[in-house]
Amino acid sequence: MTTHALASSPAEQARIPELDRIELITVSLPFVQPFATSVHSWAVKEALLLRLESGGVVGWGECVADPDPYYSYETTQTARHIFKDFLLPQVETGLTFAELGQRLKPVRGHGMAKAMLENALLDLVARQRGVPLHELLGWPSRRIPSGISIGIKDTIPELVSAVEDALRRPYHRVKVKIMRGKDVAWVRAVRQAFPQIALMADANGDYRPEDAPLLRELDAFGLTMIEQPLSFSDIIQHAALQRELATPLCLDESIHDLDDARAALSLDACRIINIKQGRVGGLLESLRIAAHCHERGIGVWSGGMDETGIGRAFNLHLQAAAGFTLPGDTSETSRYFAEDIVEPGVVLSPDGFIEMPTGPGIGVQVLEDRIARFELQRERLR
Ligand code: OSB
Ligand code: MG
After folding, report:
1. pLDDT of 165-193, one tens digit each?
2. CA-to-CA distance for 74 and 60, rounded, in angstroms?
3. Half-sphere exposure in the Cβ direction for 77 (13 Å, CA)
């Protein structure tokens, strides 16, 4: 298949229906346990949701931005501002998704706000047609191999026991967060306890180029990859680091769109890309990045942003596409929330796979009464 055939989704030519009602809703869901990266620890999931109504059909989108800028410069407030003042004014009945994408191009960055809009429109159109989202995207259903991302812990035994719990489910790959001071000894302990598992580490940009000798010590543990060891803004230094390491590097925060992915690959800055549809401007740009990587033999996988069940469902449908061969970060709902805002939640089969939702659109039922209970703010725009 050519890049074009792989990248060009039937959804590009789908048309935007007349929107009768548009609402932005901010919800806050308590996490079962806090989630910590090298940068910050989150005890709740605050998410901006977009609810679109057309002819009695409702479509949902979720913005993956946090209320704070500790993963990305985008926040729930910047996404609200960009959506209301710059994205929504470009939406017109009858435009194709490809045309809408072109209209949104002049808005620099703000991929999380753009993804929320595209998600809600795609869910709406798929529901109106009565087809599952993966079908609108052009891919048949498949079972998704699941991985898990384990946050920074206080002690090494706590980390080892969290990995042990994950393997009992069983997840297909375990990612552990690392940071300066919680790295080589921590990964060594996990590797010694579980010599055979697919294991990787994610630093969320905590290291500097001069830490290369320390990071090279991780080569001893046969990691599938090291994710985003250096700054979110630095592709060049990742290229230099990749030359020093045997372990493949994976970029997350550094990749905001197809152009970033092209730059990273032409510089050999990584051998794997973590595609978060919510970070790169949506599902259609994700498919373009996946196709570009697939053609070059570069592995991709779907990351996560601890989404509610709405965003998690979008991540699942994306993984129907070719190229998503590595297990992603889509984990079971019960790992994040005691109560979610959709039904059914994500559960692993006994062999560690997730079944693709089968209903129209994202294929899960959005529980509006639950949303009302977790709601911080609701703003009607139309
Ligand atoms: O770096 O991949 C990351 C969660 C929030 C912000 C950044 C990251 C993550 C995760 C968890 O690793 C992914 C998930 O379980 O959804
Ligand atoms: Mg990451």
Report:
1. 999 999 999 999 999 999 999 999 999 99
2. 20
3. 4
Catalytic residue annotation: 177, 276
Q: d(Cα 1, Cα 139) in Å, to the nearest integer?
A: 14
Both tokens of 83, joined, read 């959506």
Whether residue 221 is found in the same domain as residue 96: no
Q: pLDDT of 311-356, one tens digit each? A: 999 999 999 999 998 999 999 999 999 999 999 999 999 999 999 9
Task: State how many domains the chain has.
Answer: 2
Q: Which residue, by CA, sits nearest to atom 5 of ligand 1?
A: 305
Strand segments (E) across 204-363: 226-227, 249-251, 272-275, 299-302, 342-343, 353-354
Does ligand 1 lie within 6 Å of residue 306's CB atom? yes
Do 335 and 148 touch, CB atoms closer than 8 A?
yes
* Residue 205 Ramachandran class (φ > 0 left, ψ -120 to 50 alpha, else beta): left
- Rounded (10°) angle between helices 184-193 and 156-168: 40
CATH number at residue 162: 3.20.20.120
**CA angle centred on 358, ends 26 and 64, rounded to 5°:** 25
Residue type, 42: W
Residues 149 and 122 in one domain: no
Across 232-257, b (16+ Cβ under 10 Å) vs e yields bebbebbbebbeebebbbbbbbbbbb
CA of 303 to the centre of ligand 1 (A): 7
How far, in Å, CA of 274 to CA of 373, rounded?
33
Kindly state whether residues 166 and 284 are assigned to the same domain. Answer: yes
Ligand nearest to the CA of 309: 1
Per-residue pLDDT for 264 more than 70? yes
3-state SS assignment for residue 108: coil
Q: Are residue 118 and residue 217 in the same domain, yes or no?
A: no
Residue 171 CB less than 6 A away from ligand 1: no
**Among the listed residues 358, 370, 321, the one whose alpha carbon sits nearest the alpha carbon of residue 11:** 321
Question: Does any ligand 1 atom lie closer than 6 A to the CB of residue 305?
Answer: yes
The residue to mutate among 29, 31, 32, 35, having the most atoms of ligand 1 within 8 angstroms of its beta carbon, is 35
Burial of 1 (0-12, 13-18, 19+ CB in 10 A): exposed
Secondary structure (3-state) at 143: coil
